[in-house]
Amino acid sequence: MQNYSDMPEIVAPASRIAFILREEISRGIYTIGEKLSNERILAERFNVSRGTIRQTLQILAAERLIIRQQGRGTYITTPAYAPVTEVKSSMIGAMVYEKEYYFGAILQGASYCAGTRGYVLITGSNATEEMELQHVDAFLKNGIRGVVLAPKYEYSARAYDMLVSNNISVVMLDTLLPNRTEDFVTVDNRHGVYMATSYLIELGHTKIGYVGHDDRRDFPCRAAQLSGFYDACTQHEIKVHESWQIEANEDNYLAKLEAVLRQNGRPTAFVSYNDIWAVRLIRVARSLQLRVPEDLSVIGFDDSTVARNHDIPITTINSEPNELGKVAVDMLLKKIENPIERPKYTFMVQPRLVVRKSTAPPF
To answer: Closest Cα partner for 43 from 3, 14, 15, 73?
Structure first.
């Protein structure tokens, strides 16, 4: 049984098959000059379409591991002997630290955009520094041409520097690394929370709290979101109560939230920096016998499955994840296909408000 544990998680079947064939070539299962099985046989072996096999062969040809000769077939070669006129690799990568809550939908948009442009997207995880460095190493060995990187503030600088030193184009997603200037794609967090807060004010709420996160290294979007909250309140002449801003990383945050909700003249609405915290707000409110939305309106951020599937469907800000993925890949491919020196560019995708059942006018 072959072990492919060091292979990055593959988005496209063609990349998975290319990885297997590449390993077989390196282990000598195929010899130099040997004719590779035809598309039909390979398609049957891997239980995929012939179109997928053609894409696989394009990847291997770009790496100069095979030569495709018109009318004769496909033959095993080595990069040392294959013509240098072969097409460059069509592989690009994406590095994210989770897929269940937020980045999965972004990767869907990224993969779609890559496919329409003739590229194959593979993904790696940077949930830990060790995983990130392993996947960057695999990216480099597999001839990756560019990477969309959602970095971790604490440790991703090393991986980023590895990519750049190997002339790999990079676009950062969602977070920027300190002391690194790079092309950047994110959602307009400030405007998203501005919309959420303004919507509550339009419903008639004047007592509005905010639950966020004060660790800007982990969640740099928090500062932009809090700015949107303040801007909306200031514009509508709504008083901002400092004690109604709950820092989500504090050890006693739940006790503080409970204390705020027990006050006479308590907030009638809360804006949360993501949907997970909107759910936690609802849980605390229920523990105090407060009804949502009759006694407390709650708005989240991200429009995740958490918000859509909650027993009280949550009003939230949709960050347009598919669009984020498409924009990030489009920006990356422009860098790959036109590698000229230019100023770094930031693109902010505009979010939208999704109204559900967790918000209502104050009673």
So the answer is: 14
List, in order, residues 6 or more apart from 98 with CB less than 8 Å away.
Answer: 127
Could you give the 3-state DSSP secondary structure of residue 221? helix
Closest by CA position to 177, among listed 138, 134, 124, 126: 126
Phi and psi for 271 in degrees, rounded to 5?
Answer: -105, 135
Q: What is the CATH number of domain 13-76?
A: 1.10.10.10
Residue 34 has a CB neighbour count (10 Å cut-off) of 12
d(CA 361, CA 35): 72
Report the DSSP pairing between strands 73-76 and 66-69.
antiparallel
CB atoms within 10 A of CB 3: 7
Query: Regarding the domain with residue range 189-319, which homologous superfamily does it belong to in the CATH classification?
Result: Response regulator (3.40.50.2300)
What pLDDT, on a 0 to 100 scale, did the predictor assign at position 314? 98
Ordered DSSP codes for 44-112: HHHT--HHHHHHHHHHHHHTTSEEEETTTEEEE--TTTS-TTSPPP-EEEEEES-STTTHHHHHHHHHH
DSSP element (H, E) containing 122: strand 120-125
Q: Using one digit for the tens of pLDDT, what is the confidence trace for 286-334?
A: 999 999 999 999 999 999 999 999 999 999 999 999 999 999 999 999 9
* Dihedral in degrees, nearest 10, Cα atoms 231, 237, 239, 240: 0
Establish whether domains 13-76 and 189-319 are of one fold. Answer: no
Residue appearing with tokens 């496209």: 12
> Which residues, 6 or more positions from 57, have their beta carbon under 8 angstroms from its beta carbon?
39, 66, 68, 74
For residue 253, what are its two tokens? 């945050």
**Domain-by-domain residue ranges, the chain?**
13-76, 189-319
Q: pLDDT, tens digit, for every residue of 36-84?
A: 889 999 999 999 998 889 888 888 888 778 887 666 778 887 665 544 4
